[in-house]
Design a protein that fits this description.
Blueprint (H helix, E strand, L loop, with lengths): L10 H12 L5 H22 L5 H11 L2 H17 L3 E2 L15 H13 L1 H6 L7 E5 L6 H12 L2 E5 L1 H4 L7 H12 L5 E5 L14 H19 L4 E7 L7 H4 L6 E4 L5 H12 L9 H7 L5 H22 L7 H8 L8 H14 L3
Parallel strand pairs: 2-5, 2-6, 3-4, 4-5
Antiparallel strand pairs: 1-3
The structure holds adenosine-5'-diphosphate (ADP) and magnesium ion.
């Protein structure tokens, strides 16, 4: 006679049986293993009680007496949440695209990455690893890039929250959506949660209307909630407009570090230029010269410059029907149309903000 259990050894069928009997959803991968344990438990329980115990009873008893199912359930739940929230896994190599001399790389390494990776040593010396940090600086300076690179260096998940997504149900629901998102995120582990355009969420309450105040208030409640969690979650917020942020949000105790992300020095530019140059069809290139020509450029400016150079080379070869090699002259030509984006005023404002707002 066929074993009546055998069809249940199909992973999906096991998932369905466990869900139906125990109300717990587990991944098909783990369901087969779990189902065989429940069957074994049914047999053991029947032996102990000297009667045939039903599968539902065995399942409930197994759940009550093992912490394995909740942990598997948690894993499943986390996987589902990660997918729902668009969790990405970022390669470790992204951290290396940033030059050691590019501020704030060394600071981030010292204050964020090392305390989170060297857990034992942090505990020994009473260093409290950060839970919430804020990046500020002009557009295109690499704030988002830093947040992603941190996730890569830590080998954690990266989840990005864009304020406009919180606004999909209308302005009145932003606070509730923010709470829901933060509550979901707090169930995850080893995650960098990145909130871009943070001023949209935490704009000054003095200037804002009633709705904006409720969003800022909600956020002020969420930060301590996130900090009290044992799971490894790093909240990284970024803004181009630190002056617009509510002063309550900037007080000590909320963000562990408030970090300026500013201009690139020669070495910082060289690293990024090398990264983009590798993608071009180049001829005679004197690196020193390009580094000099791009003084005052942000990473975003450099990226835009290279797009323009690539397009130019592509069109040139199409028109002339012969191999086109990008040279320093190509850059000099394109640079006439691509000036650095940061004005002197913006740079001066940033320098002042770095003194007024940084907490590192
Ligand atoms: N170190 C880097 N190497 C290569 N590209 C970079 C680097 N830093 C930033 N970029 C690129 O420059 C652009 C602007 O960076 P981004 O992080 O979006 O700036 P911000 O968030 O400050 O506006 C992005 O396309 C990013 O990929
Ligand atoms: Mg950004």
């Amino acid at each position: 006679m066929n074993d009546p259990i055998s069809p249940d050894l199909i992973p999906e069928a096991c998932t369905n049986r466990i869900l139906e009997l125990c109300g717990v959803e587990v991944e098909p991968d783990t369901a087969v293993n779990l189902w065989s344990k429940i069957l074994e438990h049914k047999w053991l329980l029947s032996e102990q009680l000297h009667r045939d115990v039903g599968i539902k009873t065995a399942c409930a008893d197994f759940l009550e007496n093992t912490d394995q199912v909740p942990s598997q359930y948690e894993l499943h739940e986390r996987g589902r949440l990660l997918r729902e929230m668009g969790g990405q896994f970022i390669g470790k190599e992204m951290w290396d695209t940033i030059s050691d001399s590019q501020p704030p790389k060394q600071l981030v390494q010292r204050r964020i990455i090392l305390p989170l990776t060297e857990e034992g040593l942090s505990r020994k010396h009473g260093v409290i690893p950060p839970k919430a940090i804020l990046f500020f600086g002009p557009p295109g300076t690499g704030k988002t890039h830093f947040a992603q690179a941190i996730a890569g260096a830590l080998r954690w998940w990266y989840i990005e929250i864009v304020p406009s997504v919180l606004m999909v149900d209308g302005v009145e629901s932003i606070g509730a959506n923010l709470r829901e998102t933060m509550e979901k995120a707090s169930k995850l582990d080893e995650v960098v949660l990145f909130i871009d355009e943070f001023e949209e969420i935490a704009g000054s309450r003095d200037m804002a209307d009633r709705i904006d105040k409720s969003i800022t208030n909600e956020f002020l409640k969420q930060i301590p909630m996130l900090k009290n969690k044992q799971n490894k979650i790093l909240l990284v917020c970024a803004t181009n407009y630190i002056r617009q942020l509510d002063t309550a949000i900037l007080r000590p105790g909320r963000f562990d570090c408030i970090i300026p992300v500013g201009g690139l020095d020669r070495e910082g530019r060289t690293t990024i230029l090398e990264h983009y140059l590798a993608k071009l069809n180049t001829g005679d290139i004197v690196m020193e010269k390009i580094v000099e020509l791009t003084s005052g450029f942000t990473p975003a400016d450099i990226q835009y410059l290279f797009q323009q150079v690539a397009q130019f080379a592509f069109e040139k070869e199409l028109a002339d029907k012969k191999d086109y090699l990008v040279t320093v002259e190509t850059f000099t030509h394109i640079l006439q149309k691509v000036p650095p984006s940061l004005s002197i005023e913006v740079i001066e404002e940033f320098k002042k903000d770095s003194v007024d707002y940084s907490r590192i």
